[in-house]
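Margin note from the TA: students keep mixing up input and output lines. Inputs are the sequences; the output is the structure of the whole complex. Example:
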Amino acid sequence: MIFWDLFWTFFKIGAFTFGGGLAMLRIAQEQVIAWGWLEESQIVDFVALSESTPGPFAINMATYVGASQEGILGAACATLGVVLPSFIVILIVAHFYKQFQSSHIVKGVMTGLKPTAIGLIASAVISMAITVFIPAGFSPSLFRSTEFYVSLVIFALSLFLVFSKKIKIPPVLVICISAGLGIAAGYAFGL
Amino acid sequence: MSSFKKALKLFITFFKIGAFTFGGGYAMIPLIQHEVTVKNKWITDDDILEIVAISESTPGPIAVNSATFVGYRVCGVLGSIASTLGVVVPSFLIMLVVFFVLDEFQHLKPVQYAFMGIRACVLALVLKALVSMYKKCEKTWVSYTVIAFSVITSVVIAKFVPINTFYIIIASAVFGLVSYSILRRRANK
């Protein structure tokens, strides 16, 4: 049943996410695509929406995917699923937090989990990059497509804005600028 | 204050935090700290640091973990339910609206053009998040090994053999535990 599938999939995603919401991107890509809930390009769109709306990434993701499948009820099931592992674990840990914090097992496990979160985000970035720049697979005709160059220019500009130490603008604004450039380029080149 | 009133206060506080913080869970931490230690004086500075540290090493989104923990500290299970709901409900509602609005207008040309631009931009944003996580990570050979292992297995090897990411995470946790134990034993000798 779809409601159970949504709940259980996001429960697993919630239980395996360490080090913040973005770390779940790789698992989410894999699971959501395996179920056929979203396509790779829709996931990239979703990440954009999540960056431009308030709230934790995980909740946004669960709500969006759930809503795309079964409306409000689907969204509720997926969101409940992603929250429940946190909720249960914290209630347990709240009782033993002294032991938890000094536990060498926890420390040991975390020395593996922190870097794997980084590695998994990196691989999520790689597959996002493929989706953005070479959606139809690699071929020589890629270098003749205007869309490729438009994406490249917008990417370069965003990189500059995001990493620049002098210009401090919020991510939402960078997204708005890119959207504007996308619209302008789309009409200018008749894509 | 009755526990019901406290729970209501928790709900409202975390609702505000959930509704006005852009940029995910990490961006919420300073707000949560301010609200619970300075404004409401529910928890001391030291305790909140401990709560954040634990939230980072338990599964799930950090914002939800710390909300649940703070709620529990302030007024038990009722408090934890109130603050968790508070932090979740705003983004749930906003995302629902965004989804339905987008669903309606997705087929329009300007919207598609806008997303062409946004997709390229998002890549830069995620890259930025990745770099700042990397900067915070301890630079040891264990970290490098695990990062390399995760990237290679999930990008290269997964192209040929289907590998579930859950197993990559479990393997990294086991590797971390084993190497940590070995290094500790050596240090103790």
